[in-house]
Amino acid sequence: MRLLSTLASGALILLGSTVAVAQTDLERATARDAANSGRAAFDAGQYEKAIDQFSRAEQLVHAPPHLLFLARSQAKLGRLVAAHETYLKITRETLKPNAPKAFSDAQVSAEQELPAVDARLPYLTVTLQGAPADGVSVDMDGTLLPAAMIGIPLPADPGSHVFRATGTATSNPVTVTVTEAAKQTVVLKLKSTALPAAGPAAVGAANTNVSLGDPLAGDHAQHGSGLRIASYVSFGVGAVGLGVGTYFLLKAKSSDDEAGKLFDQCVAIDRSGKCGSIRDQYEAKNNDANSQRNVGIASMVVGGVGVVAGVTFLILDAGSSEKSARQSTPHVTPVFGLNSVGLLGTF
C-alpha cells in the first residue's frame, strides 16, 4: 500500500508538467481532485465511485496511474473484460523518454497484474443447432453479437448471461451462469420461422371466396408464400450485413486513431519519420484500419442489398395478393359480336 500511495501521489504531483498545452489550469486542478477522490474511494472499498472519479480524471488529463486504478477497481467488481482491456491499454502505450517515473511505474505494475486478471477470465462459445443459421442474429444480454463471434470462444464477466437467436430462425432464451476461469459452450437450438406453403384444405378454410377447384388459387398462395419467405431471408441477411459492417467500420475508426497516435509519437521522436519499431507499429495499424474498412464497406453493401431485396419481395407479394383477390371476385363482362350479344361472367 505504501508503494501504491507513492505511485498515485507522484502521478498527481507531476501531472501539471506532462499534459498538453491545450489543457487549462482548471482542467488540471479538477483532474487532480478527481484522482485524489478516486484514490480515497478505492482505499475505502468504494469501487464504483473510484471508477467514476478516475474515469473523469482520465477524460480531463491522460495519465497511466488513472488507468491503473481504474483497472484495479474494475477487477475488484468482477468486470474482468473491461479490466483486461484497461490493463492492455496501459502496457501497450509507448511512453516518451522524459515521461515521469510515476508513469513508467504504473506501466510496470500493469504488466505484473495483467496475467492474474487474464487467468480469471471465463470464456463462452456460442453454437447454433437445428435450422439453417443464415439470416440469424444472436444477442448476449440484449447486445447483438457480430456473426464473426459465433462459434469461437469469447471472454465474458463472471455471472449470469442470457443468449437468444432471432431472424429467419429463433431460439428460446438460454441463461448460463459462468464462474471465473471457466470455459463453457452455449447451445442455441434454432426453430425455423418460415410459414409452410398452404395446401388446398388450408386455402378453402382461410378464404371461402375461392373454390377448391380454382386452378389459380393454389398457384397464387404458393407464389405469395415464397415471396414472403424470400423477403424475410433478405431482411435477415440485410440486418446481419449492416451489423457486421457497422462493427468493422467502428474497428477501422479505432485502428485509425491508434495509427494516428503512433504517427505523432514517431514524429515527436524523429522528424524524418524513421523511428524503428514505432514506424512498424504505425504501418501495421494503418493496414489493419484499411482491411477493416474494406470489410465494413463490403458488409454494408451486402446489408443494403438485402434490405432492398426484402422490400422488393414484400411489394411483389402485395401485388400478387391483390391480383389473386381480383380474379376470385365474381364479375360479369358484356360480349358483343356480329348479330349477337352475350355475357361472360365468373362466379
Q: What number of structural domains do the residues give?
A: 3
Largest sheet: 4 strands, mixed
What is the typical, i.e. mean, pLDDT? 80
User: C-alpha Rg, in Å?
Assistant: 31 Å
Approximate shape: globular
Seen as an oligomer or otherwise, the chain set is single chain
| Strand order of the biggest β-sheet | 4-1-8-6
- The total of helices stands at 9
- Overall structural class, as computed from helix and strand content, comes to alpha+beta
Notable traits:
347 residues; alpha+beta; Serine Threonine Protein Phosphatase 5, Tetratricopeptide repeat; Immunoglobulin-like; four-stranded mixed beta sheet; four-stranded antiparallel beta sheet; 9 helices
Task: Describe the protein's architecture and organization.
61% of the residues lie in helices and 17% in strands. The chain has 347 residues and is an alpha+beta fold. The protein has three domains: 2-120, Serine Threonine Protein Phosphatase 5, Tetratricopeptide repeat (Alpha Horseshoe); 122-193, Immunoglobulin-like (Sandwich), CATH 2.60.40.1120; 195-347. Helix 4 runs antiparallel to helix 5 (80-92). The radius of gyration is 31 Å and the shape is globular.
